[in-house]
Each structure stands twice: as C-alpha cells, then as structure tokens.
Design brief:
Layout: H1 2-8, H2 15-41, H3 43-46, H4 50-63, H5 75-83, H6 91-98, H7 108-143
Helix pairs in contact: 2-6, 2-7
Length: 146
Amino acid sequence: VLAGVAAFGLDLPAPARFAQFAAAALLAVLVGFALRYAVALCAFWLHDDRGVQAIALVSAMFFSGMILPLVAFPGLLGTVARHLPWAAVIQVPADVFLGKAGYLGLDGTAGLLTAYGFQAGWALVLLAAGRALTSAARRKLVIHGG
C-alpha cells in the first residue's frame, strides 16, 4: 500500500464520507448478525447445521460482493444479487465509501438514504424472521421436554 501511495498518490474521501461509511458499516453488522442468527437457528430442526452453514458461507461470499463486485454481475443475476440481503453486508458499505451509493438510480443524499433504507429494511426483515424462528424453536424445545 505504501509503495502504491508513493507511486500514484492517495485521494482520501472527505471526513463526512467516513461518517457515512460508519453508519453503513453499523447497519451491515446488524444485517450480518441477523443472517448468521437465522442460519444458526436451523440447528433446532436439522440437528446438524454444518450443511446450512456451508451453503450460507458460499452464498455470503458470492452475493455480498466479497469475491466480485455486484455491479460486475451480468443482467438479471446482477439485479437479483443487488437486492439480496448479502449485498447490504459488503457491497452497500463499499458503495457508500466510494461515493457510489446511487441505489434505484438516485444520487447524492437520496441515494445514500436509499442505501441506508435498503440495509435497515433487510435488518428489520431478518431480525423479525429470527424472532419468529426463536419463538418456534422455544415451542419445539418445550414440547420435547427441554
């Protein structure tokens, strides 16, 4: 990194962008927790969650933008990938940091708020699903004498 900075220079974003990124990163942590919690709850019904964990890991790596940015995905695959919850974990915070958070064709503040709304929406949906699954798991555990 130092050699790259020396050879090409480094343009850091404005301090406001770091604050915007911090908010996106916090929402990403919330979505990531909710995804992992829902996957972990599968163990109540499957008794061995290794298969679900493996599928979740591959899905997270592929659909989050960790391996390849989602904007590089072609056609319908790219559209679908950008609307899945995994995009809220890596791709959206990266877009916010780079100033490319123009979701749904919106730029500037509207695009930033749309990106936050996307993350918050998935967090709410996944946390609600986790709550419902936890309730179902408690009933199952009590029925089985636990």
